[in-house]
Design brief:
Number of strands: 6
CATH class: Alpha Beta
Largest sheet: 6 strands, mixed
Oligomer: single chain
Order of helices and strands: EEEHHHEHEHHHEH
CATH superfamily: Ribonuclease H-like superfamily/Ribonuclease H
Strand content: 15-25%
Number of helices: 8
Strand order of the largest sheet: 3-2-1-4-5-6
Helix content: 25-40%
CATH topology: Nucleotidyltransferase, domain 5
Shape: globular
């Protein structure tokens, strides 16, 4: 089974307001083991970045203005993830941004490339109702060292999320009962508007 743990950093909270992806990272798992393969790109968003977002990830437009645009890296990104199950924390947020970027690049929605998504935020809420389920909280709960995480970064966050996911699902029910299709995530995103913005 091939899985891709995925995370993005963005210029703000809502692609409908013109916010864009500025960092994209993926880590590959095969049969629940890290393979060492990853995909990581910084991206020129072609727009300014909200001050609140800069405070979260530390990335400025000045830092990114000479990076490739999403359309330039889309083909290599889709080749890396195609056919895999995606593992994402707060999936509607990232999927909404990715679908927006794919649409702007004239490409099909994410559901055409990846059959299923596991939302680790949803898993965590089911396993630990009423508790904090941010990535930092989960690292603390499962005793995963995140002391080097001083700001959000997509690559570091995917590495940490992979560790969290493997612990969370060690004794989990069968995958078919804990996954959403990307179409279901799209539908939830449309139904509820802005995605859950609980910080990673």
């Amino acid at each position: 089974m091939r899985q891709i743990v995925l995370d993005t950093e963005t210029t703000g909270l809502d692609p409908k307001s013109g916010h864009r992806i500025i960092e994209l990272a993926c880590v590959e798992l095969i049969d629940r083991k890290k393979t060492g393969l990853h995909f990581h790109r910084y991206i020129n968003p072609e727009c300014e970045i909200d001050a609140g977002a800069v405070a979260v990830h530390g990335l400025t437009y000045e830092r990114l203005r000479n990076e490739a645009k999403f359309a330039d890296i889309a083909a290599s990104f889709l080749e890396f993830i195609e056919g895999a199950e995606l593992v994402i924390h707060n999936a509607p947020f990232d999927v909404g941004f990715l679908n927006n970027e794919l649409d702007l690049a004239g490409l099909s929605a994410l559901s055409n490339y990846c059959p299923r998504i596991t939302d680790t935020l949803n898993l965590a809420k089911n396993q630990h109702p009423g508790k904090k389920n941010s990535l930092n909280a989960l690292c603390d709960r499962y005793q995963i060292d995140n002391s080097h995480r001083t700001v959000h970064g997509a690559l570091l966050d995917t590495e940490l999320l992979a560790e969290v996911y493997l612990v969370m699902t060690k004794d989990a029910e069968p995958p078919e009962r804990r996954m959403l299709t990307t179409q279901q995530v799209d539908e939830l995103n449309k139904l509820f508007g802005l995605p859950d913005t609980e910080p990673l």
